[in-house]
Amino acid sequence: MYNPKNPPFKLKTLTPIWTGNIDRDSISAAETGVLGSLRWWYEGIVRSLDGYACDPTDDDVSKRCKFDSDAYEKAINCGENVDEAFKEGLKDVCAVCRLFGCTGLAKRFRIEIKGLKTLPLFFVTHQGVYATNGNWLFRIFGGQELGGQKKGKGMQTEFIFRNSTLWSSDPFDMSFLSIHGDEEKNLHILYYLLWVTTSLGALGAKSQNGFGQVKILNGLNNDMLESGKRYVQEEIQKSKKGENDEKHFNLNNFFSIIYEMKDPAPYEGVGWIVGRAPSNFDYRSYFIPCAFDIRYKSSTRNPFTSRGRDFGMRPFFKERLNSKITSDLFGSLGDSKSASKIHVSHLFKEAPNEKYYLKVWGYVPKTIGVDLKTVTTFLDEFIADKKGMFPGSKKVFEYNPKSVIG
What we know:
Largest sheet: 4 strands, antiparallel
Oligomer: single chain
Low-confidence stretches: 302-308
Shape: globular
Radius of gyration: 22 Å
Strand order of the largest sheet: 2-8-1-9
Number of strands: 16
Order of helices and strands: EHHHHEEEHEEEEHEHEEEHHHEEEHEH
C-alpha cells in the first residue's frame, strides 16, 4: 500500500539479487531472503554499540529471546495498563528482536519490493578451470536436484541451471511498512539499516557468492540516517542486557573495501560461461558473475603432476596463514560446517561504459588467530599488487566506523 509519508526507495541492481524460496530459486523477491540479511546487519550494528543481540539460531533455545506473551495476556485480562505491560515484557527482548520479532512477538514491519524481474542463473569462469568450477557451481546451486542439465565431459561440458536470480536494468522499488508500534522509530531504524547494508555489504542471500549489490538512488537523507542511529541507541538502552559471543558479527571487527578495476581481464572478454546467459542481455555492460573464481580458483594445478598454480583468494590466504584460520575466514563444509566471514562481490559497473568495481567485506573475530589489519593487507596484495589478480586496481572506498556507527 502506497503511503505518501513513506514513499518507496528507488534502488538499482548492480549484481543479481538472490532471495530464494523453498525450491532454492529466486523467481520473486521473497521477503524472508531480505529479512535474513537485514537482521544479520542489525545484529552487527547493535553489538558494535555495546548492545546485546541474541543468536536466533542458537542450539540452546534458552539463549534465544522470548516475549512473555502469557504475562502480557494476563495483564490485559486483569485490566492492567496494556502499554506498560507490553513495555515490561520487552525488557527481556534484545534490541534486534524488538524490531524483527521472536517467539511470542511479531516483527514490527513488512517489506514490499516491486520492479525486479527474473534472470537465468549463470557464472563466468576462467577457461583453465571451466570444468572444475562448473561442476562445483552446479553442485552448490543444486543443478541436478532442481532439474538442471549437465551435458558432455571435461571442457566440452554444458551446464544448464533451472534457477533464476532477480535483476532489473531499470530502478526498482522497496518499501518498509510499519505494522506495530512506533512508526517513525521503526521506519527510521530500517532506513539507516538499509543504508548500512547496501553501502558496506549486500542485500539478500548468498552474498559470499557475489549476489546482492544494489545502490540506493533516492529516498534517503542525512537527517533520516542520524535519526535512525539515535533510535538504535535508544532501543539498546531499553532492551535486554547480555554478553555477546566474540565469534558473532560485530562492526567493530569489520572491513569493507571497494576496488576500481584497472583491467578486468580475463573475465571481460574470454571468460567461459557456466549456465546460459540470455542472448538478448549484454550482461558485461552491468556485471560479470565471477565471484566464485575470485574466491576460490581462477587457474589450476594439475593434481597428478602438481604443476601449475592455484590462484584464488582462499588458496592465497592458505599459503600465508594455515588451513584452520583460512577455513574460519572462508567457511568450511563437513562436520565442522561454518559460514564464510569474507564476502566477495561479482565485478560490477554503476553504469554501462564505466569501470568495473569489486567489493570485498567481512569480519574478523578476535578469537580467530589473525588480526583485521593482516587480513586487509593480504587482500590488497591479492587484488591490486603487481602479481595480484587485478594488478594496478585501486581502493575507492574503505569502511570507517566513525562515519557509520559514530
